[in-house]
Amino acid sequence: MDKVVHLGIFGALTFFYTFGIFQQHWSHKSRRNTMLLMVFACVVYGAITELIQHFIPYRSGDVYDFVVDTIGAVGGYVLGRLVIHFIVVPRLERNKKKSST
């Protein structure tokens, strides 16, 4: 159960960050690079939280938690990009066509 929570938290974190970055009026390259930097930052955050737990009484860091955090971060990013590509962009283009006619 613990691993499912880690997967869900980091997946949701990067999923929603992906949408926030997508809404910025930046070039495609800038948005992509920012999204990848955000995924990297989430992975580093997962590593730091697991490392810090070694210094807290009654807590212990777990390498497998870090692995699941990383899978969640990457998975949330990929899912976000798929939703943007297959749902959001087509809707935006459809609305743009409706408003221009």
From TrEMBL:
Residues 3-82 form the VanZ-like domain. It comes from the Bacteria. The keyword Signal does not apply. InterPro entries: VanZ-like (IPR006976). The chain crosses the membrane at residues 6-22, 34-56, 68-89. Keywords: Membrane, Transmembrane, Transmembrane helix. Pfam families: VanZ. This is VanZ-like domain-containing protein. Coiled coil: none annotated. The keyword Transmembrane helix applies.
